[in-house]
Every structure is written in C-alpha cells, then in structure tokens.
Design brief:
Elements (H helix, E strand, L loop, with lengths): L1 H33 L3 H19 L4 H16 L3 H17 L6 H17 L2 H18 L5 H17 L3 H18 L5 H17 L2 H7 L1
Helix pairs in contact: 1-2, 2-3, 3-4, 3-5, 4-5, 5-6, 6-7, 7-8, 8-9, 9-10
Length: 214
C-alpha cells in the first residue's frame, strides 16, 4: 500500500510540474506576442506543441490549442498557408473532441477571420467572425470581453474593408458598452473603443460626434 501511495504522489507531482512548465511557456508566448516578437513566439509555440504531445497526447485540448498558437505566429510572419493549415488542424481536433461549441473553438474561428481579412477574402472573414461571435455568445455570454472583441472585429471589417459605416457603428457601440460594464472606463480597451468610434465618425463627416469620442 505504501508503494502505491508513493507511486501515486510521484505521478501527481510529475503532472503538476508539467502543467506549471506549460503555463510558464504560455506566459512567455503571450509576452513575446505582445512585444510583436513573432519569430521568438513561434519557437515557444513549437515548445508548447512538443510538450503537449509528450504529456497530453495529440487528442488533448492543450495540443489543439498549441497548434492554434503556431498558426497565429505564422499569420503574423505572413506565412498564410502554414497559418491556415495549423489553425484548421486545431479546429479539426477540437471537433473530434466534441468541442465545436467551446471558447477555444471560437478563438480559432476568430483567428481565421483575422487571417482572411489580412488576405483580402472579406466574405470568408465575415463568415468566421460571425461564427465565432455566435459561439462566444452561447458559451461566454454577451457580457464577456471576448464577445466584445468579436463585435469590434466585425466593426473593423465593415468600416475599413466594406465601407458599411452603419453596421460598423452598431458593432462598435455594442462592443463599447460591454467593455464599459465589464472592464471599466479606465481600461485601455475602452479607450481604444472610443477611438474607433471617433475615427468612424470623422470618416463619416460627423465631426461633432468624432470630437466627443476622441
């Protein structure tokens, strides 16, 4: 019995260490991405992928998410084919895990929206953004910051690409209200949302409204 408990605690300790190492790599990845050091972030994403494969197997949530991280880095270093490949593989694994109504699945769809927007395929971008928005509504709720980010992405698409200022205004204002309620008026995302509306009204020629939001 004593040997059983010794073995059990050894396994538990190893799993905890692996989780800690994984979490540390995610923090490093996020920091490098925020600094726009995408080549370095890509190396960390590869480490995450190897660690997830070794400790969690290729059918785990960690592994699926690590593939999405790879895809994001390839998107930023303008390797679109690789980005599409890794994000789609991530989504396929999540589907196999029956996680197609899951926040991580929504994030993958949102990443595809960003990617196709950069590639100039605005129809596909809109489709993925709206799919992501719907899943985030169902899983996170309409008061979650990620739902607000999806609304903002649609605002950007309709304003900058499609020239549909009316739709852009609707999405921007919905996003602004959610951020105000959830994160507060001192959050940087709230300031960015105000600025987005300022730019929008300036381009529409409504300088009075633009001034207010600026």
């Amino acid at each position: 019995m004593r040997y059983f408990f010794t073995f059990f605690f050894f396994i538990l300790s190893s799993a905890t260490q692996a989780q800690d190492s994984y979490d540390q790599l995610i923090s490093k990845y996020d920091r490098l991405r925020n600094l726009e050091k995408y080549d370095s972030a890509l190396l960390v994403a590869k480490q995450l992928n190897s660690m997830a494969l070794q400790n969690e197997t290729d059918t785990s949530l960690m592994y699926a998410v690590s593939l999405r991280y790879l895809g994001i880095c390839y998107m930023f270093i303008q390797k679109s084919d690789s980005a599409i490949y890794y994000i789609n593989i991530s989504l396929k694994i999540l589907e196999q895990q029956k996680r197609n109504i899951h926040p991580d699945y929504a994030s993958g769809l949102n990443n595809l929206g960003n990617l196709f927007r950069k590639m100039g395929d605005y129809k596909s971008a809109e489709k993925y953004y709206k799919q992501s928005l719907e899943i985030r509504r169902n899983t996170l709720g309409e008061s979650h910051p990620d739902y607000a980010k999806s609304l903002n992405n649609l605002g950007v698409l309709f304003k900058e690409i499609m020239g549909d200022y009316k739709s852009a205004e609707k999405y921007y204002k919905q996003s602004l209200e959610i951020i105000k309620k959830t994160l507060g008026e001192s959050d940087i995302l709230y300031a960015k949302s105000l600025n987005n509306l300022g730019v929008l009204f300036k381009e529409m020629g409504d300088y009075k409204s633009a001034e207010k939001y600026y």
